[in-house]
Amino acid sequence: MSRHSDHGAPTSADDGLADFGYQQTLDRSIGKFASFAAGVSYISILTGTFQLFYFGLAFGGPAYWWSWPMVFVGQLMVALCFAELAGRYPVAGSVYNWAKRLAGPTTSWLAGWIMFTASVVTLAAVALAYQVTLPQIWSGFQLVGDGTGPTDFAASAVIWGAILITFTTMVNAFGVKLMSRINSAGVFIELIAAVLLIVLLAVNIVNPPSVLLDTQSYGEGYQLGYLGAFLVASLASAYVMYGFDTASSLGEETVDPRRTAPTAILRAVIASFVIGGLILLFGILAAPDLSDPALSTSAGGLQLIVLQALGSTIGTVFLISIIIAVTVCELAVQTAAIRLMFAMARDNALPAGARLARIHPRFQTPVVPAVLTGVVAVLILVVNIGSPQIFTAVTSVAIIMIYLAYLLVTAPMLRRRLRGEWPGPNPPQGYFFLGRWGLPINVLAVVWGAAMALNLAWPRPEVFGQGVLRFLPLLFIGAIIVLGLAWFRTKGRHQLGCLPEHMARNLEGAPNSQA
Question: Cystine design at 121: which of 140, 187, 249, 398 (Cβ 3.0–4.6 Å)?
Answer without folding.
Answer: 398
